[in-house]
Amino acid sequence: MNLTNLTTETRNQRTLNLDQMSIQDILSIMNEEDQTVPQAIKQSLPQIEAVVTKIIEAFNQNGRLIYIGAGTSGRLGILDAAECVPTFGTEPEMVQGLIAGGMSAMTVAVEGAEDSQTLAKEDLAAIQLTNKDIVVGIAASGRTPYVIGGLTYATEIGAETATISCNTNAAISKFANYPIEVEVGPEILTGSTRLKSGTAQKLVLNMLSTVSMIGIGKVYKNLMVDVKPTNEKLVERAKRIIMEATDCSYETASETFILANEDVKLAIVMILTNSNQETAAAQLVKSHGFVRNTLN
Predict the structure, then answer these.
(1) What does the record give as the active site (predicted)?
(2) First to last CA, the chain
(3) 120-147: per-residue pLDDT in tens?
(4) Which of 46, 170, 181, 243 is the most buried (most CB within 10 A)?
(5) How far is 139 from 171, CA to CA, in rounded Å?
């Protein structure tokens, strides 16, 4: 294994004496280094757009978005997948995250799991990957065998493939139809890719899931109209979303929210089209879930 050509493994010349710096100086340089991440991502926006387009295509044919990764990369994929459920009202199966070593690896490293290509194939087979799905491999180094194994298996069965890495000419890029490479440079703590690399991956994942959900009608204006009101805070947020979307009173929002069986999107369409629950539901089906299209 040769890591010498990976910028994620090289030493940051600004922090060669990191252990001798004051707390203030370390915090300042971390902050300065972090500010370079969005600019690095900006260079990859065309590639990110291509992947979003493919995710939307997968969703529109009832396919799924599957993230695979090891360590920090795998954990970030699982985090993004988990957040889609409450934010966009998706079923847990629609966006999934797989991590080398299984869910126990979320908190404790599983020895050698990331070095197994076979394990990734087994994990994807266990969720019955199909050619309608898209697999996004995540690896800061861009060389993780687990990710390569997963991408290879996905290609074999005809699923779409994409990657997110933090090195150029990454090994995993060769196994994906749509590679995203965001080179953020050396970490302030050499090789600690949970820092800038992790931040870059999180920002890209935010883009992939959020923009894809917008693309299938999960957003009206800039409101999360498919939010799941699973606790008191989210119930109140749901009512506020209805108010913002329709310019109605809190009382009207609360009443319609109940009439719509706590379905925010349905309540919005009921108010905007002055229709009952059944008619509004039919309009949403006809418009493929896009609130705006029910108003035409």
Answers:
(1) 83 (proton donor), 114
(2) 59
(3) 999 999 999 999 999 999 999 999 999 9
(4) 170
(5) 10
Question: Using CB atoms within 10 A of its CB, is residue 168 exposed (0-12), middle (13-18) or buried (19+)?
Answer: middle
State the Cα–Cα distance between residues 209 and 78, nearest whole angstrom: 12
Cβ within 8 Å of residue 63, ≥6 positions away: 57, 130, 132, 133, 134
253: Cβ contacts below 8 Å, ≥ 6 apart = 239, 240, 242, 243, 246, 267
Active-site positions? 83, 114
Burial of 273 (0-12, 13-18, 19+ CB in 10 A): middle
Average pLDDT, the chain: 95
pLDDT exceeds cutoff 70 at 221? yes
Q: Which residue type occupies 87?
A: T
Phi, psi of 268 (to 5 degrees): -60, -45
Average pLDDT over residues 45-62: 98
Q: How many residues does the chain have?
A: 296
> What pLDDT is stored for residue 182 in this prediction?
97
| CA 202/CA 196 separation, integer angstroms | 10
Q: All domains of the chain, ordered by start, with CATH?
A: 7-215 (3.40.50.10490), 232-295 (1.10.8.1080)
